[in-house]
From TrEMBL, chains A, B, C, D:
Domain DAHP synthetase I/KDSA: 87-326
Protein name (Swiss-Prot/TrEMBL): 3-deoxy-7-phosphoheptulonate synthase
Alphabetized PANTHER family for the sequence: PHOSPHO-2-DEHYDRO-3-DEOXYHEPTONATE ALDOLASE, PROTEIN AROA(G)
Residue stretches in coiled coil: none
Length: 351, 351, 351, 351
């Protein structure tokens, strides 16, 4: 941490800062310039945070040097992590495709979508039973009935299930059906929910908030990790910018930036970032080429009748394109495409 | 609603759209241009939404004409609403100041802050007992002990209490202590929380999400209203932009824009938008002059020791400036400054 | 300047930085922490910039402490400046209204608009003869004929003229007709144009780029100042954000922020920021209340036929509202409303 | 075009709109809804634009349906164009690498960088002789001496030259030395410069403004095209967002979006978008995989001493990575890697 003193700061002001820092068990080095004096702090940053130095007399600014997250940081955990979801790995050596319908609508639609997902190279099934929607008048999901459909389709296809939780109170209801719990973009800052999934005994897929910086996203992961759950996969899904040609702007650079800052795997959602079916295939190629550990894709047997985000769901012939892309790009990126399990699973949580 | 057909759309495609609309109980008018055909829809927009027209063959785009919110819209409720909080009105004819400490730290600090709030012209006391913080290592609030402190200070000063809820599960705990429940910026999209405060029997202060459009903000209010609670006050508190000189960019234009779209009162938080003490007074002047129905301001008896957002809390001499501003600008804006109740209140919910 | 060393930096790396800084005539203080070492630099920042320290081995980051602009900074020029335009002052003690049509269309329209401007309290006339338009198919202005119309209207009304230059080559053509040269938002980064107006012998109105930070805006002013012209007035006109309810988002906080960083006057353009007629009056109130040194407003005798930005031009009855606002807010803000000169002027450049 | 009437619009207001449209040679179809009436327009959109319909009584909004650009649109030119630069093609069947130093500093540095560019797979040499810099105190380039160095290096290596123009007045000076003229991000809205390169007889590389929408970028291209020059290559180089981990946010989705809207080739600049050396290789992979027609990369023999943007210039070993990437991804994307010309060129303009 570096404290920048104001031009008008007195010697007394500088001394006061040094004393506070030393009283908090740290050390302080003063560099006196022509117009500015700066004080470099050495010691426990959390203790310094509590000193409120930016509010002390004569202090112009306090500049933080090290990252405010710890458990998810790569600094003390240089090897990138592998997270297992119902036995399926997500990590630096594999390429994992998650696919399925945005919303579970019926057993038939979900099963058909799961077969499309498999055809596209997926080894995990996504599907929403609880949908957080901007409008209270939009389709809100099937609830527990949707969860049972997902579990049945998992039994039928062998694809472990990724599904969203939107409320701390329903984590207990959803967890038994799910192999992985998804936190959606609008809930990235829902700290009560983050803490709830931190103790739910399931891996977590944490989507980036569309208005959140990379640092805030990693802090949200830290909330989960702090409760003892380090089985977290990050998912970049586009940020909000001034550009209106796409629903959001996919921040493709976030993938290598996050992989350098954190040991957690990071995947990309090319469906929600663009919000357009015609962008799913090119953005999937970009995501895999930039080095993502996987992708998550909306598929639907009949997008024209989809109850949620039909504009972006892919179907034939995009499915064939995706299967081709993942098959070709995996070896190029030094990764093994994760294959679906050979036969139907035995329930969630199998590792 | 207007459906724009693609240049390559056939007559059959256009007919299919018209038939779908008519089958849904609406009517459709076709305008055939040189390169484009458009279809104007007349009838129930929600029914049309369910048709997924943007996914039909030959459809290029679907343009929505009317607003997607209803209960909070001014279209069918032209008079601007007055919301009463522990007897104190917020609305078009008054100017209401809410002030207090960002976080409740102790009885002494809260009482001192409440006296400062009164001195600044406030008739409502804000104070946080549950704090949603970006970092899990930051101060998280006193919890129920903080609520009791707030209730005691209300008894002492007569100022009704505005306090934040951060979790659906704690609404039941917080409501009995509070005269108004605050939804913070990070929870504007927390739909479970919005629904919980919709049935809590308390007025709600709904802060705008820092990454949310005005339309999304009004949709969040619609979630609360849909549960039967129309006692909602909106609070503009800055949006996230590329500018880094201020913590957020106060969207001052949002005040008149919202007042035109919705009948709900709208106030401004000059403390959190700028994140800097030196901006609180000028931004308060701007907020009142633009026509806000009130302001909400962080005050603290000793910002140097504040456990939360001390950088932005005002103290003497800004308190005097604020008292002067609200006294002078109220009559200019044709408003009456809301005065604190003459004597100590009798508990929350008094209207 | 502070150099942050990477965790893996060696003693040799640190020594190399210190030596480079000393060889450049500066001094360096090393603070060694548990995981990081930082080096505080004292001396000529420009000399340090040339060292490319961020590219040296072992260097993680270089943090700049002081502002990169000098001539326009308030640091060495604490008194706020007064700029005179055709004899009319813009500065800390006055409130100056600039008004007129977005584009000069005809002598009649310009004269009518000038009378409206006067009625609204303006002492300076704005009008565009050269229009930078996003579309090459949009109205591009009358060129020199427009300049002559402006000069005639100045003679008739006594209002000095503010008009835009869009090209270094035309500065010579425009300057003799103008009392103040305007640089538009799209040209804030047009360095050749900035340099050209730096030697044109006229005060300059520098609009903020809609995608520019406050620091970049002040750097653009520094370009002009560096050529010897310190007669610069800054104009906030909205920045581009994700919000689409308004054309741009007026960054009202920029006014006090700039007034603290720079000695130059700063005014607000409520017409272009909102892009909506109904926002001009409330945003003008906000601008004056926040402490702006003036405002610039689009007026048009018949907005329905305006060739440029008719959606935002005000006419009766907004003119009366504006006249009332500036009359009432000037004394409240401790300012004198600048009055138009008593009789017709004697040409540009009169100070 | 669709005109949306306000709820309070009268029959007379609707009739007035219809009459105006018919008087302008178009036709209008009225769809009367329960709360809204809309009028669909058929005919010449430019003529309708001139009617200022949004300012007519009773009109709430005017919605544009078709794109405002024509010459660069793919609507009337479905085949994607191939642009030739000194004989080197950029288009849908090739993958073209442009590389070189951000700024020309000396003959030795430029030649060394050109050899690195070739090693990385480049067939075109970029290098700046005129540098637009945010700070007037930053390095501004060698000017004409830099142009002569570039021409000499072209003779030596056979790589045609891409170099920036920053001012209409210097286009005449630069064009004889250049095979392609670059318009930088800060000049995308410099309409005088766009028009100047429109008649300069050289292909143009048009970078996207960091604050510009895709539509504005295509409108800027339309300015050049309107002067008769359709040899335009678009270059995505990142947009400004709230994220600060990277200098800009590479809008990777812009590549497929632009390729659908326009027939012009589009390339990506992975160096300036990220502003970080460690991102150049992954972002190059993403750019090629998303379908870009090429990339433009900063290389420098010794980034530690670079006078401009040294933080992002690549050197060995990234050069080898890049050579590998372009060799492997070209065939996968169905493209031929453009090879440098076999021997030294015979001057600019050879097609």
């Amino acid at each position: 941490m570096v404290v920048v003193m104001a031009p008008e700061a007195t010697q007394q002001d500088v001394d006061a800062v040094v004393e506070l820092v030393r009283a908090a068990g740290g050390d302080a080095f003063v560099s006196r310039g022509v117009t500015r004096t700066i004080v470099g702090l050495v010691g426990d940053v959390d203790a310094f945070d509590a000193l409120n130095l930016s509010n002390r007399r004569g202090v112009l600014d306090v500049v933080r040097i090290s990252a405010p997250y710890k458990l998810v940081s790569r600094e003390h955990h240089p090897d990138r992590s592998v997270i297992r979801v119902g036995g399926v790995p997500i990590g630096p050596d594999t390429l994992t495709v998650i696919a399925g319908p945005c919303a579970v609508e019926s057993p038939e639609q979900t099963l058909a979508a799961a077969h499309m997902a498999k055809a596209a190279g997926a080894s995990l099934l996504r599907g929403g039973a609880f949908k957080p929607r901007t409008s209270p008048y939009a389709y809100q999901g099937l609830g527990e009935r949707g969860l049972r459909i997902l579990a049945d389709v998992r039994d039928e296809t062998g694809l472990p299930v990724v599904t969203e939780v939107i409320d701390p109170a329903s984590v207990e209801l959803v967890a038994p059906y799910a192999d992985m719990l998804q936190i959606g973009t609008r809930n990235m800052h829902n700290f009560a929910l983050l803490q709830a999934v931190g103790t739910a005994g399931r891996p977590v897929l944490l989507k980036r908030g569309f208005g959140a910086t990379i640092e805030e996203w990693l802090m949200a992961a830290e909330y989960i990790a702090q409760r003892g759950n380090l089985d977290i996969v990050l998912c970049e899904r586009g940020i909000r910018t001034f550009e209106t040609a796409t629903r959001n702007t996919l921040d493709i650079s976030a993938v290598p930036v996050v992989q350098r800052l954190s040991h957690l795997p990071v995947i990309v959602d090319p469906s929600h970032s663009g919000g357009r079916r015609d962008l799913v295939v090119p953005l999937t190629r970009a995501a895999l080429a930039v080095g993502a550990d996987g992708v998550m894709i909306d598929v639907h047997p009949d997008p024209r009748t989809a109850l949620c985000d039909g504009d972006q769901a892919v179907t034939r012939p995009e499915i064939d394109d995706l299967a081709h892309i993942v098959a070709v790009l995996s070896p190029l990126m030094g990764r093994t495409l994760t294959r679906p399990r050979a036969r139907a699973g035995v329930g969630p949580g199998t590792r």
